[in-house]
């Protein structure tokens, strides 16, 4: 870990922190919520030892990267703009792309907007959802899962932040990272995201107190608004991406998901993946891997296996 280099670059109007190690073809890693570049530490060390230059930014709103205050600054165009500018600043024409959670969503957008910059994509956890021409995402989720669905609970600026502030940050991080609810995450206000403070949380073998403290320390400094703004920009993304309705993802893709991931167990997702519909929208989808007994934070829970899956795919190109 001490060999990983850290630098700050001015890209697309913001200061962005990146972690980097290795030399060779570039692999760009995109983290999700509530995470940091640190989520990819295992994959960076593994792939850099195999001849790759691994790069993991703190995305806009996270960690040591700037945190614009308003949700309107967190559209897919802002995030992909940051990443294209990052490749430019690093002198890279192309890179392999790896995403997880919101990083996976932004990886799909990256390939939609600028496929010329991506050699191949390994995406985890979140499938490509083609844009519905008639339904905005948040009202659709509210109608389907109710007001307690976590994405709906995140929409009102300041509300989730106030709730999070009442919970110890390390406890909140633990609750998110080790959640193994295989299905829609609904959190009534009377229960709260922290759960009962009397409940003891036992960490799994793949997550240490030291790891938790890396996240907790940064989120105590920055707050959660940056990460929550990705959710708050969902309907705006829908409005702005109307010209891309029906456009396919035209880069080579490998998709990896855990069979206990709440995204995989959302109604209709398994059928979408395995019926061939997913491949209709992602025609160069070459592999789908469903890892048994693994939940949402797959790259941390099964680091060696995920690193090997990434390497097995990108070495073909």
From TrEMBL:
Q: Which family does it belong to?
A: Belongs to the AB hydrolase superfamily. Epoxide hydrolase family.
What the protein does comes down to: Epoxide hydrolase involved in the biosynthesis of cucurbitacin and mogroside tetracyclic triterpene natural products (e.g. siamenoside I and mogrosides IV, V and VI). Cucurbitacins have cytotoxic properties and exhibit deterrent taste as a defense barrier against herbivores. Mogrosides are nonsugar highly oxygenated compounds used as high-intensity zero-calorie sweeteners; they also possess pharmacological properties such as regulating immunity, lowering blood sugar and lipid levels, protecting the liver, and acting as antioxidants and antitumor agents.
Specify the protein name.
Answer: soluble epoxide hydrolase
- Chain ranges of the AB hydrolase-1 domain: 25-141
Please give the pathway this protein is involved in: Secondary metabolite biosynthesis; terpenoid biosynthesis
**InterPro entries recorded for this chain?**
AB_hydrolase_1, AB_hydrolase_fold, Epox_hydrolase-like
A Pfam entry, by short name: Abhydrolase_1
Q: Does the keyword Hydrolase apply?
A: yes
């Amino acid at each position: 870990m001490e060999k990983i280099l850290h630098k700050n670059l001015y890209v697309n109007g913001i200061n962005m922190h990146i972690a980097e190690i290795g030399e060779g073809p570039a692999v760009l890693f995109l983290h999700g919520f509530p995470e940091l570049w640190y989520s990819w530490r295992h994959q960076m060390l593994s792939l850099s030892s195999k001849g790759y230059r691994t790069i993991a930014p703190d995305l806009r709103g996270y960690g040591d990267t700037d945190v614009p205050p308003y949700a309107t600054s967190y559209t897919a165009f802002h995030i992909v703009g940051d990443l294209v500018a990052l490749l430019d600043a690093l002198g890279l024409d192309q890179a392999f792309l790896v995403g997880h959670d919101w990083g996976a969503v932004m990886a799909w957008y990256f390939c939609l907007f600028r496929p010329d910059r991506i050699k191949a994509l390994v995406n985890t956890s979140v499938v490509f959802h083609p844009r519905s021409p008639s339904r905005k995402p948040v009202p659709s989720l509210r109608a389907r899962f109710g007001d307690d669905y976590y994405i709906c609970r995140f929409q009102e600026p300041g509300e989730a932040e106030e709730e999070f502030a009442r919970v110890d940050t390390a406890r909140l991080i633990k609750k998110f990272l080790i959640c193994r609810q295989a299905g829609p995450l609904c959190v009534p206000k009377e229960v709260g995201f922290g759960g009962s403070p009397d409940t003891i949380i036992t960490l799994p073998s793949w997550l240490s107190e030291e790891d938790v403290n890396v996240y907790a320390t940064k989120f105590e400094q920055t707050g959660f608004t940056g990460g929550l703004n990705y959710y708050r920009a969902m309907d705006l993304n829908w409005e702005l991406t109307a010209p891309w309705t029906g456009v396919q993802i035209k880069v080579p893709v490998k998709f990896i998901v855990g069979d206990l991931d709440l995204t995989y167990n959302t109604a209709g997702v398994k059928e979408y993946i395995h019926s061939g519909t997913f491949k209709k929208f992602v025609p160069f989808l070459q592999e789908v891997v469903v890892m048994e007994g693994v939940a949402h934070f797959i790259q941390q829970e099964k680091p060696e296996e995920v690193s090997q899956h990434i390497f097995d795919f990108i070495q073909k190109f």
